[in-house]
Amino acid sequence: MIRSELVQKIADENPRLSQRDVERIVNTIFDQVTEAMAQGHRVELRGFGAFSVKKRDGRIGRNPRTGEAVEVEEKHVPFFKAGKLLRERLNGNEAGE
């Protein structure tokens, strides 16, 4: 599902909200999650999962074409850990037992 499909689904299920309002809501949620992660915070959505940022240290890598050693700088990468309810639903246990 892409962002526009999400907006359309929410708009279809909530006819009292305009498409523009739904789009603004979805964008605000994504912006807030992104901003919190950019500041190094963890974002938890109960029943869905948690987004966090992990630091990868710098290292010496190899260019696969030439085999030459290349310095790879440290970087921060997004990380998602699925919540218990999401894992159960994906594995066919819809009752959450």
TrEMBL record:
A GO term from the CC aspect: cytosol
Domain of life: Bacteria
Keyword set, alphabetical order: DNA recombination, DNA-binding, Transcription, Transcription regulation, Translation regulation
PANTHER family, alphabetized: DNA-BINDING PROTEIN HU, INTEGRATION HOST FACTOR SUBUNIT BETA
Protein name: Integration host factor subunit beta
Quaternary structure annotation from Swiss-Prot or TrEMBL: Heterodimer of an alpha and a beta chain.
Entry function: This protein is one of the two subunits of integration host factor, a specific DNA-binding protein that functions in genetic recombination as well as in transcriptional and translational control.
InterPro entries assigned to the protein according to its UniProt record, in alphabetical order: Hist_DNA-bd (IPR000119), Histone-like_DNA-bd_CS (IPR020816), IHF-like_DNA-bd_dom_sf (IPR010992), IHF_beta (IPR005685)
PROSITE patterns hit by this protein: HISTONE_LIKE
Pfam families referenced in this protein's UniProt entry, alphabetically: Bac_DNA_binding
Family in the record: Belongs to the bacterial histone-like protein family.
GO function term, MF aspect, one: DNA binding
GO biological process, one term: regulation of translation
